[in-house]
Amino acid sequence: MSIFPLGLRLEGRRVVVVGGGHVATRRAFALVESGADVHVVSPAVSDSLASAIGRGTITWHERAYHCGDLDGAWLVQTATGVPAVDDLVADDAEARQIFCLKGGDPERATAWTPAVARVDDVTIAVSGGGDAGRASALRDALATALQTGDLPLRHRTHPRGLVALVGGGPGDPGLLTARGRRLLAEADVVVFDRLAPQSVLAELAADVEVIDVGKQPDHHPIPQEQINALLVDRAREGKVVVRLKGGDPYVFGRGGEELLACREAGIEVEVVPGVTSAIAVAAAAGIPVTHRGVARGFSVVTGHESLGELPRRGDHTLVMLMGVKRLRSTADELIAAGHDPETPTAVIERGFSPDQRTTIATLGTIADRASDAVSPAITVIGDVVSLAAATTGSVGVRQTS
């Protein structure tokens, strides 16, 4: 049967739902969501419908259907489960030139509701030729493809440009969020860091501009001010600019600085959090940063600054980022400030990569045991490190006796 796809604006318009069961409930809620003035006609209703009626979002006519119930309606849904009643409603709707959604009888319906999903400002509506299961499967596949970026929506309208600060996670592209992938698929420009999941760059369209602003330890070839200016300049050209970072933009990622620079320039900014390596890489090594009865809190710091004021208890986990080259001086500073040199300590290198390596020792011996450790790496100090003992002997794990 040939149909004409159409979207309806129902806000403030009367829509009648005849029936109070499962189908009627789902349709009534969907109609309320569209802003319709929903009237339910039924002697009894489901508990869910009763709750909505009690909140005043739906008007209930607590009785059987009467022929005059369609007066003033723009649309009707009948789903009583009683064929004679549903046929009567459909006949009345036909006589009044009102479109009728007829539950369980698409052949006699004059309107069909597609399977619908909404992804940001995009509405997906799929008709399955009368097969609701097929329509739902197609809808879900399309929605997932849009969310993950497998079906990109390039060239969305951003008259003043857009900058998206996207956290790429701890390195494994599988840990990049669905929202992050979606924005990458829409990007005109991608500005990325050394620790960002660079394998996803191969998925970009050929016309996407890719700019490497990665910093090496103690070597920043492109100052932060220039990166800020680059984001603003590209966005002012009306482009979608993705700033792809490792971990989370707001955990030692200078995301706050870039956000302020863009907002001061009047540029629209979206922040997409990422999985921070401070927690994820520790977890990859079998170390939870908190654990009942072992650690009640944790601090995340860089290894470049004074550490003497940090909590000195083994039940407070310390996670240090970007400090592997200063590991010996950091350990000495912590011990001098009162930290127990016997505190379990781990250095995890290249988290989530095939050559991830964990070195487990004590605070007093970790510098010797991990003297050959290289960036990227995190250091975890605290009693929770002892929970990784079960991984001893695994590939990539070194532990003192």
From TrEMBL:
Alphabetical list of Gene3D superfamilies matching this protein: Cobalt-precorrin-4 Transmethylase, Domain 1, Methyltransferase, Cobalt-precorrin-4 Transmethylase, Domain 2, NAD(P)-binding Rossmann-like Domain
GO molecular function: NAD binding; precorrin-2 dehydrogenase activity; sirohydrochlorin ferrochelatase activity; uroporphyrin-III C-methyltransferase activity
Pathway recorded for this protein: Porphyrin-containing compound metabolism; siroheme biosynthesis; sirohydrochlorin from precorrin-2: step 1/1
Signal peptide location: none
Enzyme class: transferase
Active site: 193, 215
Keyword Chaperone carried by entry: no
SUPFAM superfamilies for the chain: NAD(P)-binding Rossmann-fold domains, Tetrapyrrole methylase
Domain of life from the UniProt record: Bacteria
GO biological process: cobalamin biosynthetic process; methylation; siroheme biosynthetic process
Reaction(s) the record says it catalyses: precorrin-2 + NAD(+) = sirohydrochlorin + NADH + 2 H(+)
Pfam families: NAD_binding_7, TP_methylase
Keyword annotations of the record: Cobalamin biosynthesis, Lyase, Methyltransferase, Multifunctional enzyme, NAD, Oxidoreductase, Porphyrin biosynthesis, S-adenosyl-L-methionine, Transferase
Lyase as UniProt keyword: yes
Listed EC numbers: 2.1.1.107
InterPro entries reported in the protein's UniProt record: 4pyrrol_Mease, 4pyrrol_Methylase_sf, 4pyrrole_Mease_sub1, 4pyrrole_Mease_sub2, CobA/CysG_C, NAD(P)-bd_dom_sf, Siro_Cobalamin_biosynth, Sirohaem_synth
All copies of domain Tetrapyrrole methylase, residue ranges: 163-366
NCBIfam families reported for this sequence: cobA_cysG_Cterm (TIGR01469), cysG_Nterm (TIGR01470), PRK06136.1 (NF004790)
The protein's name in its UniProt record: Uroporphyrinogen-III C-methyltransferase
Species this chain originates from: Aeromicrobium senzhongii
